[in-house]
């Protein structure tokens, strides 16, 4: 398989923090890959996982440990019978708040579970960004992503 040199960041968000994290990564990590493609999850379907890219799910958590509304249709579509994502490699930045200990960062965890169930391979551990303690989620996310890319890009 061709070595992916495109990083595609799929953003699930309500109040834009996850989008700001993705934008910080786009600026900070540009020297490490050929292209960084940031996409809000609105209106995406599983065909977004086609192509020789490396994927980063960057999503917050809402409701009672649910994915954000703009991520709902993509998340549900990942349940389609027969869908397989073997060969897809991805990482996860999960945004949440430890004020919700029972469901902390579940939005990202839900995507992780579903992608793994479809045969995709997660590279590295999840990064959980806690809104109660993390003062600079953008800087933290970008720094984490530099390290993650070093592992994810052979
Ligand atoms: C109404 C509401 C419900 C939330 N529910 C959860 C939750 O169940 N678990 C969690 O970890 N964080 C929860 N959060 C925290 C958000 O995920 C967190 O603030 C995140 O940084 C928001 O990112 P965004 O601006 O990209 O949407 C909730 C926040 C709000 C306002």
Structural commentary:
The chain starts with 5 loop residues before the first strand and ends with a helix. It is of the alpha/beta class and 154 residues long. The chain has one domain: Rossmann fold (3-Layer(aba) Sandwich). Strands 1, 2, 3, 4, 5 and 6 form a 6-stranded parallel β-sheet that branches. Helix content is 30%, strand content 22%. The mean pLDDT is 96. It has 4 helices and 6 strands; from the N terminus they run βαββαβαββα. α2 (72-77) links the parallel β3 and β4. Flavin mononucleotide (FMN) is lined by residues 13-18, 60-62, 64-65, 68, 95-97, 100, 103-106, 131.
Give me the secondary-structure topology:
Elements lengths: L5 E7 L4 H12 L6 E6 L12 E7 L12 H6 L11 E8 L9 H12 L3 E2 L4 E4 L6 H16 L2
Parallel strand pairs: 1-2, 1-3, 3-4, 4-5, 4-6
Helix pairs in contact: 1-4
Bound molecules: flavin mononucleotide.
| CATH level-4 homologous superfamily | Flavodoxin domain
Would you tell me the structural class of the helices and strands? alpha/beta
Number of distinct beta strands:
6
Number of domains: 1
Bound molecules: flavin mononucleotide
Averaged pLDDT, please?
A: 96
Order of helices and strands: EHEEHEHEEH
Q: What general outline do the C-alpha atoms trace?
A: globular
Distance between the termini: 12 Å
CATH fold-level name? Rossmann fold
Considering DSSP H and I runs of 4 or more, what fraction of the residues is helical? 25-40%
Mind telling me the C-alpha Rg? 14 Å
CATH class: Alpha Beta
Q: Show unreliable segments.
A: none
> Biggest sheet, in brief?
6 strands, parallel
Supply the number of helical segments. Answer: 4
Beta-strand portion reads: 15-25%
| CATH architecture title | 3-Layer(aba) Sandwich
């Amino acid at each position: 398989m061709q070595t992916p040199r495109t990083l595609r960041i799929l953003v699930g968000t309500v109040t834009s923090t996850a989008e700001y994290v993705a934008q910080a990564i786009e600026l900070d990590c540009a020297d490490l890959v050929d292209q960084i493609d940031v996409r809000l999850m609105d209106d995406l379907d599983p065909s977004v996982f086609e192509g020789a890219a490396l994927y980063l799910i960057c999503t917050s958590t809402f409701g009672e440990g649910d994915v954000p509304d703009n991520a709902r249709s993509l998340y549900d579509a990942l349940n389609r019978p027969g869908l397989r994502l073997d060969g897809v490699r991805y990482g996860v930045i999960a945004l949440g708040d430890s004020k919700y200990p029972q469901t902390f960062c579940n939005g990202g965890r839900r995507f992780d579970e579903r992608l793994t169930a479809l045969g995709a391979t997660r590279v590295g551990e999840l990064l959980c960004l806690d809104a109660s303690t993390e003062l600079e989620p953008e800087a933290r996310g970008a720094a984490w992503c530099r390290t993650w890319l070093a592992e994810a890009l052979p």
